[in-house]
Specification:
The chain has strands at 2-5, 8-14, 26-35, 41-48, 56-63, 71-72, 76-77, 83-91, 96-103, 109-114, 120-131, 143-151, 176-178, 187-190. It is mostly beta strands. The protein has a single domain (2-190), classed as Sandwich (Jelly Rolls), CATH 2.60.120. Strands 1, 3, 4, 5, 6, 7 and 11 form a seven-stranded antiparallel beta sheet that branches. Strands 10-9-8-2-12-14-13 form a seven-stranded antiparallel beta sheet, with no helix packed on it. A hairpin with a 7-residue loop joins β5 (56-63) and β6 (71-72). The two termini are 27 Å apart.
Length: 193
């Protein structure tokens, strides 16, 4: 969803069931902000198997414009069922975003700071992204992003209208996005696992 201005995007989600431990898939779940041209991104990310350990970790990421390599904060370990808080906040004093991934159950967080994108003419979204995924067992269970907040520079609410986007070429059978009518505070990403 494109917005004229956003200075804060907060979302909560619970660590879902894990992909099959036999899988070599790498999976990411996140809320994100990117410029409308899509050439950069900031995101607090829940990661499955990112570090080849077949477990869940979390980091705060950013990809600068037109670069294929991202920068991530020190990963923290999280467990299935833990509540995650992903926060992106714009600081107008230094023209930078603070990206925070926090495990609400343990109180542990990891942070990254960047000015790689601005706060105007941007897109906001939640996502399930996967690599080396061949079937439904190689992605996590359903994930609901909830208690989402979108604020402008004056900390006034920004209205969001979600648009579902599912990759029709993905080798999965149960992908779909559930968006409640008239409510922009939660989105559910369905899988067949």
């Amino acid at each position: 969803m494109s917005v004229d201005e956003i200075a804060q995007f907060i979302a909560y989600w619970d660590v879902p069931s894990s992909p099959s431990p036999q899988s070599d898939s790498i999976v990411y779940l996140f809320n994100a902000i990117e410029p409308s041209n899509g050439h950069a991104i900031i995101q607090p990310v829940l990661e499955w198997n990112k570090h080849s350990a077949k477990d869940w970790t979390g980091s705060a990421w950013y990809f600068p414009p037109y670069q294929n390599e991202g920068y991530f904060s020190t990963p923290i370990d999280v467990d299935v069922g833990d509540t995650i808080k992903g926060t992106m906040g714009w600081n107008p004093g230094n023209n930078k975003w603070t990206i925070t991934f926090k495990d609400e159950d343990t109180g542990v967080s990891t942070v990254n700071i960047t000015g790689c994108i601005g706060y105007q003419d941007v897109k906001v979204f939640t996502a399930l992204e996967g690599y080396y995924v061949d079937d439904d067992s190689e992605v996590p269970g359903d994930t609901t992003f909830y208690n989402m907040r979108f604020r402008d520079l004056n900390l006034q609410n920004v209205d969001i209208e979600w648009l579902p986007d599912v990759d029709g070429t993905a080798p999965l059978t149960g992908l779909r996005v559930e968006i409640p009518d008239g409510i922009n505070t939660w989105v559910k990403l369905h899988t067949a696992n």
